[in-house]
């Protein structure tokens, strides 16, 4: 063949060729490519990555920072200042709009990039045949010509021409918009068939919802159909959360309120105080600038972005930003057992057949250990050999010795069976080679069994393995025998063992497993019991959850007795409490179901559809539910839950796609860590609000008080309004002081009691009475201090009437500078109070958040520049202060510290009562 595999141009007619013709064209074989060829093709075609699609261009993000009510109000204010002949003030206002937009842009752009990077952390694995061996590789490493096997739950990693297909249903909504799954076949179709009718193809990014298949890669990366439409499926770019939405509403409210107050002030200034129109309008501009929290959007984005990053550090990757907040108000966590609460390191410990018990030594997947009977090491009897052979053949797992340890490919339950068979002297490769599989009914959580068809020495048989009840239902047994087996099973389950039953059935001449063939007529072969120890860290995490008012429920497909035993070890069940079976749930009416959902802590033998009903029942009882899941059928429950949590290691691509959070280590403790982080983020957001907003209210009050109550001064015969601050000075406070002080709050440590208080109600308003009261107290204190400082300094300097223009200008600059410095000190001292809204500063540890001191230091330095640097004096109309003035400003600012501390103490006392 002289033709090269043409993945880059993805010849569109692969679907019209037979499977063999496609393999030939790609110079590939059904056994997969040899490793050397893979390396060559990787060099030629590059990685299997989609070119990333920018969800929103940088310019659009930048424009959004300006194009909002607050942005336009500021631009209006700047234009007004310009019209009034105050170009410096106008410049400062425009500068502020620009700087704010740049800060907002950088934050949002960076947060977006960081979140994209997180999405890329979620690995997509693929199973390929290389040199005839099945291997799990990262989807990025696929090359054209690779032979990939698919099973239910997989995301198709590249464009494939299907070679063999079994009951394959693929959901192609990502590509065709059609949400109903399509049944695939391996046959060729017409060359001009539209995408949705090309049944012999499976396209990258679509999802296998049922069945299995093998296919050869015909296109990767940008050459795939998905790459062509350039749709990077990614829901994480959305930066809106319930809180930001609430704040957007607040900011529109502020804008309207500001406009109303401004109108009143202008009227009052012109008609009551007889001030020149220009002067009155300038006060209005100052007020507009003062009342708007320009720095707030930046601070919120920073808080959320830090939260997302910290969660990722703790192995919880957030795919959907609002989840950061919702996590903080989670009231119930419904968790799978296997792998999440337990280690998912299965080891077979016991086999039972024909009334005999055999014990297996050894731990983990190492196929090293012995089998003993009645305390003595024993060679496997033919019956035990038969049982282990069934366990090995009706099994997809592979054990491999890699880098000094045994690793597995496939399901841990099955891997444990392979290890157990090895202890009985059965070599997996040899046995599977000798008795190849003719057909399979794969294991599903609903059916709870797996069946395979083989030609054994004694004839064709169907081998069956699954949950004991499922297997016994299919076996011809008398009542007494059945009773005995169930008793044995119960004994093992009570010890927390996961029990698997095995059976076989003659199937003379069968080529396939017919549906009715697996329904009955099996001969029972025996039981195997395996341990799966609980995770130590899960026990601690469950305790933490209990303290935090979060209920943990275990939802498992395992047997109720096993589930109860593990539930007790984990501390989920106490006293008489027991597990409820999925079947028991089916018998309950609506009300009973809800009650059961609320009161039961362990659900066993549960099918995925129960999960969905449980989520709905809990939600209808007002709970905020986090639900874990890994299988295809868990997707509806994951979508429905407030926080769907998928498993990064064992989870199917379908479940990850449906989830809001993906656990990179499948570990329950990571959910608790994420909840903790969620509470911290929310607390810090509220702290930032509680810190920033009093300044805006305070500034607006100061300017209003000045307008309503400050005397007018006659300067050289002209009536002058006394303004405590100019517009540019209010901007200085709003942007420089507020932002440099509030950003460090985003880094604030977790409050000592954050995981000891009940979850926050999701509909609780951001502005609780408590926050509003705090806001008003601080704003009033700030107003009193600033006004007092200004009046005292101005009249001290200006002296008795008549006032000359020069003396007025000098006194005004001094007094305004002192006023601004006083406000800055109020902010600094109030910041210390905001580190915890309820607890005293000391309880957090004074130095537990060093960034606070960096923020304060930076601000003092900048305030020094504001006061002393001539260029800044020119822009902001500031003047140098002497030591006494600094001291006075500091003392006035410090007033807030004891007042708020007293308020906190009184509230704590009231709460303690
Ligand atoms: P969880 O929902 O906590 O992850 P689980 O993994 O125990 O629960 P399933 O995987 O649905 O739940 O398994 C249910 C039962 O099916 C198990 O108790 C076991 O008896 C049986 N089983 C599990 N895996 C297999 C398998 N690969 N083949 C046959 N039977 C299995």
Automatic annotation (TrEMBL):
GO terms for molecular function: ATP binding; ATP hydrolysis activity; P-type sodium:potassium-exchanging transporter activity. Its main location: membrane. Pfam families: Cation_ATPase, Cation_ATPase_C, Cation_ATPase_N, E1-E2_ATPase. One of its GO terms (cellular component) is endomembrane system. GO terms for biological process: intracellular potassium ion homeostasis; intracellular sodium ion homeostasis; potassium ion import across plasma membrane; proton transmembrane transport; sodium ion export across plasma membrane. It is found in: Endomembrane system. The chain crosses the membrane at residues 66-84, 90-106, 247-271, 283-306, 689-711, 731-750, 771-792, 812-832, 844-869, 884-906. It is a multi-pass membrane protein. Keywords: ATP-binding, Magnesium, Membrane, Nucleotide-binding, Phosphoprotein, Translocase, Transmembrane, Transmembrane helix. The keyword Transmembrane helix applies. PANTHER family: P-TYPE ATPASE, SODIUM/POTASSIUM-TRANSPORTING ATPASE SUBUNIT ALPHA. Belongs to the cation transport ATPase (P-type) (TC 3.A.3) family. Type IIA subfamily. NCBIfam families: ATPase_P-type (TIGR01494). This is HAD-IC family P-type ATPase. The lineage of its organism: Bacteria, Pseudomonadati, Thermodesulfobacteriota, Desulfuromonadia, Desulfuromonadales.
């Amino acid at each position: 063949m002289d033709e090269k595999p043409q993945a880059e141009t993805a010849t569109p007619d692969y679907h019209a060729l037979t499977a063999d013709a496609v393999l030939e064209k790609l110079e590939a074989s059904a056994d997969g490519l040899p490793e050397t060829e893979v390396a060559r093709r990787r060099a030629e075609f590059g990685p299997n990555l989609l070119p990333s699609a920018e969800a929103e261009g940088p310019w659009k993000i930048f424009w959004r920072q300006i194009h909002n009510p607050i942005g336009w109000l500021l631009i209006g204010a700047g234009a007004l200042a310009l019209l009034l002949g105050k170009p410096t003030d106008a410049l400062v206002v425009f500068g502020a709009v620009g700087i704010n937009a740049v800060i907002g842009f950088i934050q949002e752009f960076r947060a977006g990039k960081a979140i994209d990077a997180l999405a890329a952390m979620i690995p997509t694995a693929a199973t390929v045949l290389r040199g005839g061996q099945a291997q799990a590789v990262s989807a990025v490493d696929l090359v054209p010509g690779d032979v990939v096997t698919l099973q239910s739950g997989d995301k198709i990693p590249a464009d494939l021409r299907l070679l063999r297909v079994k009951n394959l249903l693929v959901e192609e909504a990502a590509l065709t918009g059609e949400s109903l799954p399509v049944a695939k076949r391996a046959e060729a179709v017409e060359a001009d068939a539209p995408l949705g009718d090309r049944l012999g193809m499976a396209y990258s990014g679509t999802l296998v919802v049922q069945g299995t298949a093998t296919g050869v890669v015909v296109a990767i990366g940008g050459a795939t159909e998905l790459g062509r439409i350039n749709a990077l499926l990614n829901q994480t770019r959305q930066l809106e959360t319930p809180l930001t939405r609430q704040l957007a509403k607040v900011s529109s409210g502020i804008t309207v309120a500001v406009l109303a107050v401004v109108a009143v002030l202008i009227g009052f200034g012109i008609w009551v105080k007889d001030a020149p129109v220009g002067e009155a309008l300038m006060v209005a501009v100052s007020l507009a600038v003062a009342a708007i929290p320009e720095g707030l959007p930046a601070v919120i984005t920073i808080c959320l972005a830090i939260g997302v990053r910290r969660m990722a550090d703790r192995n919880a990757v957030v795919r959907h930003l609002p989840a950061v907040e919702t996590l903080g108000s989670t009231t119930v966590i419904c968790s799978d057992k296997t792998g999440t609460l337990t280690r998912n390191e299965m080891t077979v410990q016991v086999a039972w057949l024909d009334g005999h018990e055999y014990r297996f030594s050894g731990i983990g997947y190492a196929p090293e250990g012995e089998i003993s009977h009645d305390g003595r090491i024993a060679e496997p009897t033919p019956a035990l050999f038969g049982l282990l052979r069934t366990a090995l053949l009706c099994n997809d797992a592979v054990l491999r010795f890699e880098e000094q340890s045994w690793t597995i490919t496939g399901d841990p339950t099955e891997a444990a069976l392979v290890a157990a068979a090895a202890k009985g002297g059965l070599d997996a490769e040899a046995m599977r080679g000798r008795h190849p599989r003719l057909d399979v009914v794969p294991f599903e959580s609903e059916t709870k069994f797996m069946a395979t068809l083989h030609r054994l020495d004694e004839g064709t048989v169907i081998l069956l393995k699954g949950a004991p009840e499922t297997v016994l239902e299919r076996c011809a047994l008398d009542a007494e025998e059945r009773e005995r087996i169930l008793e044995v099973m119960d004994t093992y389950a009570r010890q927390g063992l996961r029990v698997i039953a095995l059976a076989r059935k003659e199937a003379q001449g069968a080529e396939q497993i017919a549906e009715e063939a697996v329904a009955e007529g099996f001969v029972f072969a025996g039981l195997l019991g395996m341990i799966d120890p609980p995770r130590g860290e899960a026990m601690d995490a469950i305790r933490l959850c209990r303290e935090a008012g979060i209920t943990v429920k275990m939802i498992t497909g395992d047997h109720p007795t096993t589930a109860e035993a593990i539930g007790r070890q984990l501390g989920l069940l106490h006293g008489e409490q027991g597990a409820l079976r999925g079947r028991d749930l089916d018998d309950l009416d609506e009300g009973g179901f809800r009650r059961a959902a609320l009161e039961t802590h362990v659900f066993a033998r549960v099918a995925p559809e129960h999960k969905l009903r449980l989520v709905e029942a809990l939600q209808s009882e007002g709970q905020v539910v986090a639900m874990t899941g890994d299988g295809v059928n868990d997707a509806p429950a994951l979508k429905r839950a407030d926080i769907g949590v998928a498993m990064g290691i064992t989870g199917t691509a379908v479940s990850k796609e449906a989830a809001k959070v993906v656990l990179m280590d499948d570990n329950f403790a990571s959910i608790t860590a994420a909840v903790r982080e969620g509470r911290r983020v929310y607390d810090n957001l509220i702290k930032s609000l509680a810190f920033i907003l009093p300044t805006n209210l305070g500034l607006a009050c100061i300017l209003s008080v000045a307008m309503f109550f400050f005397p007018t001064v006659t300067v050289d015969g002209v009536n002058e309004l006394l303004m405590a601050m100019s517009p540019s000075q209010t901007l200085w406070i709003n942007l420089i002081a507020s932002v440099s002080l509030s950003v460090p709050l985003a880094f604030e440590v977790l409050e000592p009691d954050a995981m000891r208080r009940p979850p926050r109600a999701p509909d609780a308003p951001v502005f609780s009475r408590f926050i509003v009261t705090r806001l008003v107290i601080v704003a009033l204190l700030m107003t009193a201090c600033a006004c007092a400082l200004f009046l005292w300094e101005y009249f001290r300097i200006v002296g008795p009437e008549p006032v000359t223009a020069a003396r007025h200008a000098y006194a005004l600059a001094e007094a305004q500078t002192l006023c601004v410095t006083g406000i800055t000190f109020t902010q600094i001292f109030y910041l210390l109070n905001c580190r915890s809204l309820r607890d005293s500063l000391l309880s957090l540890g004074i130095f537990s958040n060093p960034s606070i001191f960096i923020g304060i230091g930076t601000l003092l330095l900048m305030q020094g520049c504001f006061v002393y640097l001539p260029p800044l004096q020119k822009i902001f109309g500031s003047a140098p202060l002497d030591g006494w003035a600094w001291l006075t400003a500091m003392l006035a600012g410090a007033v807030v510290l004891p007042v708020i501390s007293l308020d906190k103490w009184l509230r704590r006392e009231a709460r303690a009562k």
